[in-house]
Design brief:
81% helix, 459 residues, 20 helices, Growth Hormone, Chain: A, mainly alpha, single chain
């Protein structure tokens, strides 16, 4: 008899559409906030990078804090949905605030304005919203196949939104007249779109009751533990789960990878001499990624698990990025696009089944300790998104400043051009290689099978 199903197609689509909201924030900031601050506001890339890095110190604490709060929440809407709904209004306000830095205040005040708005967004509202959104994967269904489907659908919306934003933003800013006022208008429009899509996603699903979520074996007797553990205990449960640490490390590297690619606006502008190519490369990344996500649930079922699919996929992704390096130095844009597409196709399975992988990782903790910490476990997605994206953007700022980048200049120095090659070509390939090495050890499905076998030995 197959696994019980919990969701209809509209629940899965509705859930997945919530990543439109997350990515109007993430894609706009990761791809364009640095060039907005350096070329429009006139701030120093190195100082901005340092502020972003300092901001991430607050994020490391807030992710586990909010994950623990979600686990302890009990309301008519459930554990995660209230945080997802109300947290996004703060996200929208902070997103706009970043792009309305006053021009008539001192430069020190401009740096402070950015730092406060950016930190409130990432360490506060985005954390609450994103952890809650990710945790819903484990709270609205117990069917692992449905979880993989939800992850695939979610990331199709995510990559589609990122592709659209990277394709149209430069043109939209130009359409609205360019300059700070145009960036402000674009940010307001994106914030409104995010609020609408997030709200629709929240109301498209319902969380299962606690008794339904509890496993048959020992579920009721352990049910109370999830309500009483302290933040320090939650942290202890995480650090003693080696698979959580692997997933968290991989997720952080994935986001650093994305952040370095999102600095492509500089590579397109000053190396390839055409800023609009950012949209073309975005299509080369996101269309193959979306196609791969369509097939991920079927491939997971065919391969009877996620481990080999993720590992072999990322090996292909690393080879593809190595091809991008070679094509970049050859100066062949068509070959760069082909290799970019190959890499994206290989990377898509891990993107699609990541939420299911984290749910399996959370199950590993439950099988070993009897505690359910789904919200806290899903903190690694928010932690990875913000810490990885922040580190990637910060490093990019430091490298730009070190290379002698001059914001708004029609031409850059040879040292800056060389640095742009390192940032856009070499670093993504290296990060993919590191992720592949982590995936060689990330077989949590096998570990869970062994734990179940010990708990229920064959008679």
């Amino acid at each position: 008899m197959g696994e019980k199903t919990y969701l209809k197609w509209h629940n899965k689509i509705g859930y997945g559409s919530g990543d439109i909201a997350g990515n109007v924030v993430y894609a706009l900031l990761s791809a364009f906030v640095m060039i907005f601050l350096t070329d429009t506001v006139g701030l120093n890339a190195g100082i901005v990078g340092t502020l972003i890095a300092v901001s991430k110190l607050f994020d490391g604490v807030s992710d586990i804090f909010f994950g623990s709060l979600i686990d302890k929440t009990h309301s008519r809407m459930g554990k995660a949905r209230p945080w997802m709904l109300y947290g996004y209004f703060g996200c929208a306000a902070c997103l706009v605030a970043i792009f309305v830095i006053p021009a008539d205040i001192s430069q020190f005040a401009q740096y402070a304005w950015f730092f406060i708005a950016y930190t409130l967004l990432n360490a506060g509202f985005y954390t609450a919203n994103n952890i809650a959104y990710s945790a819903l994967t484990a709270l609205i269904t117990k069917n692992n196949h449905e979880r993989v489907q939800m992850g695939s659908i979610r990331f199709m919306f995510a990559f589609g939104t990122s592709m659209l934003i990277q394709t149209i933003t430069v043109g939209c800013v130009a359409y609205f007249g360019g300059g700070a006022s145009a960036w402000r208008t674009v940010a307001v429009i994106y914030a409104i779109v995010g609020v609408i899509s997030n709200t629709l996603s929240v109301w498209s699903v319902k969380e299962l009751p606690p008794e339904e979520l509890a496993d048959k074996e020992g579920g009721q007797k352990n049910q109370g533990k999830e309500e009483t553990y302290r933040l320090s205990q939650a942290f202890g449960l995480l650090v003693h789960n080696k698979y959580y640490l692997m997933i968290c490390g991989a997720y952080i590297l994935m986001q650093i990878y994305s952040a370095t690619l999102n600095m492509g606006i500089y590579f397109m502008t000053y190396v390839l001499k055409n800023a609009n190519l950012l949209g073309v490369f975005s299509w080369a990344i996101n269309i193959p990624m979306i196609v791969g996500l369509l097939f991920t649930p079927a491939l997971v079922a065919r391969w009877k698990g996620m481990y080999r699919l993720n590992l072999y996929g990322y090996a292909l992704g690393t080879i593809g990025r190595l091809g991008v390096v070679a094509a970049g130095y050859m100066g062949s844009v068509p070959l760069m696009l082909v290799c970019t597409a190959v890499a994206a196709m290989g990377m898509s399975p891990l993107q699609g089944d990541m939420n299911a992988l984290i749910a399996t990782c959370s199950e590993y903790t439950f099988l070993k300790t009897g505690r359910r910490v789904d919200g806290t476990m899903y903190s690694c997605t928010s932690l990875g998104t913000k810490l990885g994206g922040g580190i990637g953007t910060a490093v990019a700022g430091w490298l730009l400043a070190y290379s002698g980048y001059v914001g708004g200049a029609p031409e850059q120095s040879a040292s800056c051009i060389n640095m742009l090659h390192i940032m856009y070509l070499w670093l993504p390939m290296i990060f993919n290689l590191l992720i592949t090495l982590i995936l060689t050890r990330l077989n949590v499905e096998k570990a869970n099978e062994e734990l179940r076998a010990k708990a229920c030995p064959a008679r």
